[in-house]
Design brief:
Number of strands: 14
Number of helices: 6
Strand content: 25-35%
Largest sheet: 7 strands, mixed
CATH architecture: 4-Layer Sandwich
CATH superfamily: Ribonuclease Z/Hydroxyacylglutathione hydrolase-like
Order of helices and strands: EEEEHHEHEEEEEHEHEHEE
């Protein structure tokens, strides 16, 4: 089965057991993994799951906030130091891609010798727009309500027809219900009922309205900074399906 490997589960405050939210998608046979977000350098984590960085061909960066994008230059630099030859494709909204390109120029990427090729793809800032497609997945982007342009993702397993939906950072809005419509897995943020974010209860309401089968809460403040024991019961109070809290290194099959 396809898998979403949770490399980090925290919001913008992290601790030793909860890195910033990012995850890896692997297909039915582990082919060509896709990295979603890069708030910290994921390179040391890939070997834990027997993933060779050279096999990662695609990176999706949902928005240009530090906890989702700041690990990008370190990852590329380590790939370069390890003599990567394979090209890398990077997908994101124009707001994000422009800043990623400027960041790499700021780190003098253009002056480094014998680099591997990086190709950037700008995704329209709209609902239900194509992000990328390969033999395993069809991925579409959806607008969220956050502080800056941000996209949630609907990820269809082309082999099984199952769907994983990822809210990314957002207030509860109707577009997220449509993003998650009938999803087998909904990974929804639970940073709290503050501007630009959602509570666990709101995530449960989205899951119920969308008819999702299972809700995985992510992007929450870890125990060092907040009590997390109420998050699952809060979502369960409004959603009858399976609810759990994502932890770093969890593996979700779909």
């Amino acid at each position: 089965m396809a898998r979403a490997i949770i490399l980090g589960s925290s919001a913008a405050l992290s601790d030793a057991e909860h890195d910033y939210t990012h995850f890896l998608l692997t297909g039915e046979d582990g082919r060509a993994p896709i990295l979603v977000d890069c708030g910290s350098n994921p390179m040391p984590k890939f070997p834990i799951f027997n993933v060779d960085h050279n096999t990662i061909q695609d990176v999706i960066v949902t928005h240009f906030h530090a906890d989702h994008a700041s690990g990008f230059p370190n990852m590329l630099t380590e790939m370069w130091l390890l003599h990567r030859k394979a090209p890398l494709r990077v997908y994101g909204l124009d707001h994000c891609i422009t800043r990623l390109e400027d960041t790499m120029l700021g780190f003098a990427w253009d002056s480094m010798p014998v680099k591997f090729q990086i190709e950037y793809f700008r995704v329209p800032d709209a609902d239900n727009v194509p992000v990328m497609e390969n033999s395993d997945f069809r991925i579409t982007g959806w607008q969220t309500k956050h502080f800056i342009p941000t996209m949630g993702l609907r990820i269809e397993n082309k082999v099984t027809g199952k769907v994983l939906a990822y809210s990314c950072d957002t207030e509860p809005i109707p577009a997220i219900v449509e993003l998650a419509r009938g999803a087998d897995v909904l990974i929804h943020e639970a940073a709290g009922a503050t501007p630009g974010h959602s509570s666990a209860r709101s995530a449960g309401e989205i899951a119920k309205a969308a008819g999702a089968k299972a809700l995985f809460l992510i992007h929450y403040l870890p125990p060092q900074y907040s009590d997390i024991t109420h998050l699952v019961p809060e979502a369960e109070s409004v959603f009858d399906g399976f609810v759990t809290l994502c932890e770093d290194y969890d593996v979700i099959e779909f």
